[in-house]
């Protein structure tokens, strides 16, 4: 296979910037949840990298669990109708839940997920997302811990895929149009 760099037009966020920003978010999370239970809920598969780095940066005895969801609908557009492919193993009753996501695009996935998790009687539900595309938003999401706002471009890396590839890129980069057109 080709070298990964040939498929990219631009590095949007370098690895060091990601780690620096995650460290800042972790200091806020530690202060906000001081003395409290905290369950990180990662959304497979995109959130794997941010979950791994966020969790290791936190000086807090957190628990981690995972959900896999899939939005119905044709093509690449989210429909807002979400199906659970893998549910949590954890009972959320009385827990402080922090949903960890790689990106908020339309916001439809998270909008559904927040409502779903809130119905399970948790103590609290908040969001941590590395990236957000304000120009792609179809629904407003209240993100307590946000890494970066980015332009509405096709980005990959650090968990984000195109056709399941590029998740292993250490930075967040813009995919070259010749790859997807
Ligand atoms: C991507 C991304 C978010 C979601 C954001 O996941 O990781 O979970 O889409 O889109 P939205 O805000 O428009 O709902 P995807 O469904 O591609 O699955 P993946 O994490 O396995 O790549
Ligand atoms: Mn995802
Ligand atoms: Mg994806």
UniProtKB/TrEMBL annotation:
It catalyses: GMP + diphosphate = guanine + 5-phospho-alpha-D-ribose 1-diphosphate; IMP + diphosphate = hypoxanthine + 5-phospho-alpha-D-ribose 1-diphosphate. InterPro entries: HGPRT, Hxn_phspho_trans, PRTase-like, PRTase_dom. Residues 19-162 form the Phosphoribosyltransferase domain. It comes from the Bacteria. It holds the Pfam family Pribosyltran. Signal peptide: none annotated. NCBIfam families: HGPRTase (TIGR01203). Belongs to the purine/pyrimidine phosphoribosyltransferase family. PANTHER family: HYPOXANTHINE PHOSPHORIBOSYLTRANSFERASE (PTHR43340:SF1), HYPOXANTHINE-GUANINE PHOSPHORIBOSYLTRANSFERASE (PTHR43340). This is Hypoxanthine phosphoribosyltransferase. It comes from Cryobacterium breve. The lineage of its organism: Bacteria, Bacillati, Actinomycetota, Actinomycetes, Micrococcales.
């Amino acid at each position: 296979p080709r070298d990964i760099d040939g498929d990219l037009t631009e590095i949007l966020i370098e690895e060091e910037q990601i780690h620096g920003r995650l460290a800042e978010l972790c200091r806020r999370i530690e202060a906000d949840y001081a003395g409290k239970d905290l369950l990180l809920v990662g959304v497979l598969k995109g959130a794997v990298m941010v979950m791994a780095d966020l969790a290791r940066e936190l000086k807090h005895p957190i628990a981690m669990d995972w959900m896999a969801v899939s939005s119905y609908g044709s093509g690449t557009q989210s429909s807002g109708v979400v199906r659970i492919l893998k549910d949590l193993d954890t009972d959320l009753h009385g827990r402080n839940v922090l949903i960890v996501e790689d990106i908020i695009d339309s916001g439809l996935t998270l909008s559904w997920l927040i409502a779903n998790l809130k119905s399970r009687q948790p103590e609290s539900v908040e969001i941590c997302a590395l990236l957000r595309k304000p120009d792609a938003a179809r629904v407003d999401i209240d993100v307590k811990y946000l890494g970066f706002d980015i332009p509405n471009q096709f980005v990959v890396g650090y968990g984000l895929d195109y056709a399941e590839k590029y998740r292993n890129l250490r930075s967040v980069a813009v995919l070259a149009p010749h790859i997807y057109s």
